């Protein structure tokens, strides 16, 4: 069941103030041969879709100074585009599937200096040879017709992409800050691990030094004991030499006593 355009607008805005509406979609179940209920009060409207609703004229098109994108595809329009001159900021106009047959019907669009994108697929004029080149010559502000520029290069973007791109860039900057903070935290962790490794190494080094000191002390003690034994042995030999030189007879008992003392000293040193 088709709904009158005025009634469809009321359902779409849901009681909101007209000045706060920036997007209005009236496709599908709306039916109108002319504009009804669409007024200048939609002063902040930027996006308007009136596709496939049966329009035959644009007479009385409201002054929508902020309108940027207008979808009129699959209607029955064969002219009357001069009524769009009040939309001074219009950048995208979709006329696909309408009864546009010649350049004269498009000439009123040259007054729209902001118009950059024009869609004319499934129209009679789009079936003509070199129709794009002809239209570019008549409408110098237009940069893309049916998605192609004057050199036949395809447009690979969205006319609203700049605004979205700015938001994305702000989001990436924030993530970069987060990444920097994460990197700082990782550096701190690495520093802590480095300190732990350094302390462990120093502790092991100190233990190794203590063991070396103990080995050195033991070796030194053994050397001292050996020196003492050698000195005592030298003293015993000197006593014997002295006794012989004085003519004192060395008894076996004395000799055995000295030998016992020597062996005991050696045993003490070995222990």
Helix segment count?
Answer: 5
Q: Order the strands across the largest sheet as they lie in space.
A: 2-4-5-6-7-8
Structural class: alpha/beta
What is the CA-based Rg, rounded? 53 Å
In brief:
The chain is an alpha/beta fold. It is 46% helix and 8% strand.
Structure, explained:
There is one protein chain. The chain is α/β, with parallel strands linked by helices and 271 residues long. It has 2 domains: 3-155, Leucine-rich repeat, LRR (right-handed beta-alpha superhelix), CATH 3.80.10; 165-270, no CATH class. It is 46% helix and 8% strand. The protein contains 5 helices and 8 strands. The protein has helices at 5-13, 103-106, 131-138, 161-245, 252-270; strands spanning 3-4, 23-25, 30-31, 47-49, 69-71, 92-94, 117-119, 144-145. Strands 2-4-5-6-7-8 form a 6-stranded parallel sheet. It has a two-stranded parallel sheet with strand order 1-3. Helix 4 packs antiparallel against helix 5 (252-270). It is extended. The chain starts with a strand and ends with a helix. The model is unreliable at 160-179, 192-205 and 248-253 (pLDDT under 50).
């Amino acid at each position: 069941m088709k709904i009158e355009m005025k009634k469809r607008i009321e359902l779409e805005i849901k009681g909101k103030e007209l000045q706060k509406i920036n997007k209005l979609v009236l496709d599908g179940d709306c039916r109108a041969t002319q504009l009804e209920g669409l007024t200048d009060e939609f002063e902040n409207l930027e996006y308007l879709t009136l596709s496939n609703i049966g329009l035959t004229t644009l007479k009385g098109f409201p002054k929508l100074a902020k309108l940027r994108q207008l979808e009129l595809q699959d209607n029955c329009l064969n002219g009357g585009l001069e009524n769009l001159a009040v939309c001074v900021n219009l950048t995208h106009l979709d006329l696909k599937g309408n009864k546009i047959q010649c350049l004269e019907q498009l000439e009123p669009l040259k007054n729209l200096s902001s118009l950059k994108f024009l869609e004319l697929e499934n129209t009679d004029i789009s079936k003509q040879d070199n129709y794009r080149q002809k239209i570019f010559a008549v409408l110098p502000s237009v940069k893309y017709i049916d998605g192609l520029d004057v050199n036949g290069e395809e447009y690979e973007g969205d006319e609203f992409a700049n605004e979205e791109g700015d938001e994305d860039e702000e989001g990436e900057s924030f993530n970069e800050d987060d990444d920097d903070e994460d990197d700082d935290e990782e550096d701190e962790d690495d520093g802590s691990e480095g300190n732990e490794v350094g302390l462990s190494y120093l502790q092991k080094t100190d233990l190794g030094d203590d063991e070396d000191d103990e080995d050195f002390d033991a070796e030194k003690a053994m050397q001292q004991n050996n020196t003492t034994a050698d000195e005592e042995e030298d003293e015993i030999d000197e006593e014997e030499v002295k006794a012989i030189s004085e003519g004192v007879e060395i008894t076996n008992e004395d000799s055995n006593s000295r030998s016992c003392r020597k062996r005991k000293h050696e045993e003490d040193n070995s222990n």
